[in-house]
Structure formats: structure tokens, C-alpha cells
Amino acid sequence: MCHIVADIPGWMHNEEIAFLREKAKGKDVLEIGCWLGRTTVHFLEVCKNLTIIDTFRGVLTIDGDKQPEIIKKLNSEGKTLFGEFLKNLGRHDAGNKNVEILKMSSEEAAARQSLDRKFDFIFIDADHRYEMVKQDIEMWLSHLSKKGIIAGHDYNTEPGVRKAVDEMFSSAIHGPISIWHVNV
């Protein structure tokens, strides 16, 4: 079993992290939505290259989510999500790896990517609203390499995620826990 980073806040279970580490091992990975970097540090330990897309503003519209509380706390301390994300990468010696951070929306990043740029593993855990999950899948699916894997989080907890995944993929595999994934 791998060492699971527990000191970075997030909603990813250890079993899910272990699964993602295995799927990302040696791969060119795209992570859409990284919050404070809990999954990011694990990807960086095992993947070949990592491209991260996040606005670093959080998603403030999800009912019952802890994000507004955490963002308010950071802001009151004069901190930002992006600053804390970078600090977390540095604390885990992940800052010197082959990583590209695109501080922008998924839509802005997709418009900038070369049409021939391919990733072996795409992980979507950003805006959980149906329209946004579907848009992320549609925008990035063409950037998935042959025999690649597209995956995401919160299938079992966010109705928008479940609806978009079920609509886009009849072959999606659910699990462990709230991970969804499709082998193309």
C-alpha cells in the first residue's frame, strides 16, 4: 500500500487515492480541478507528466459544501487557494516535478491546447454541476490518447456528476467509492 497524504484537506478517500495512483503510474496526466492538491501530490509521485487546470477560486454554489467556509477562513488569514496549493506541493517535495499549472477555467485551457495534445489519463473533479461536468468531458475527450482512461470523482455524491457520466458513457465503471472511469 502506498503512503497516503493526510495533511492536505480534501474529500478523497484513501482507497480512491490508491486507485488513482495505480491508474496514473507512468502516464501523461491531466487533472481538472485540484482544490488544495491532495490528489495532485499523489499524481506527481507516480505520473510521467502532469497538467493541472484550476481557477483556484473554488466552487461556491454547491449546497452543503465546505468550500465557502474554507475559502472565508483562508481569506481572513490573508491566504489564497492558489498559495495554499503551492505550499502543499512544496511541503511534499512535489514542486520540482514535470508539472504545468494552468490557472484558468477548463474552457479557457481547452481553447489553448493544441488539438494534437493527448493525455493517457484525464481526471475530472472540478465544477460538479451537470452542465459543467458534461462540458469538461466533451471538451477533453478528444485529448485522450488511444487506450487512455478518463475518470472523475463524486459519482455517488453529486447528482450532476452522475447524470453527465451516465449520459456520456454507457460503459463507465463506478468505484472504488465515488470514482467513475472509462477505459477508451
Give your account of this protein's structure.
This protein is α/β, with parallel strands linked by helices and 184 residues long. It has one domain: Vaccinia Virus protein VP39 (Rossmann fold, 3-Layer(aba) Sandwich). The protein has 7 helices and 7 strands, in the order αβαβααβαβαβαββ. The protein has helices at 14-24, 38-46, 67-76, 81-91, 106-112, 130-141, 159-168, and strands at 28-32, 49-54, 99-103, 119-124, 144-152, 173-174, 180-183. It has a 7-stranded mixed sheet with strand order 3-2-1-4-5-7-6, sandwiched between helices. Strand 6 and strand 7 form a beta hairpin. Helix 1 (14-24) packs parallel to helix 2 and helix 6 (130-141) packs parallel to helix 7. The chain is globular. 37% of the residues are buried.
Summarize the helix and strand pattern as letters. Answer: HEHEHHEHEHEHEE
Secondary-structure-derived class: alpha/beta
Terminal CA distance reads: 27 Å
Report mean pLDDT, rounded to a whole number.
Answer: 86
Classify the oligomer. Answer: single chain
Per DSSP, the total helix count is 7
Helix fraction by DSSP (H/I, runs of at least 4): 25-40%
Total E-strand runs = 7
- Taken together, the total number of domains comes to 1
What is the CATH third-level topology name?
Rossmann fold
Largest sheet report? 7 strands, mixed
Q: What order do the strands of the largest sheet run in, or round the barrel if closed? A: 3-2-1-4-5-7-6
Architecture, CATH level 2? Answer: 3-Layer(aba) Sandwich
Report the β-strand fraction as a percent range.
15-25%
The CATH homologous superfamily is termed Vaccinia Virus protein VP39
Low-pLDDT windows of residues: none
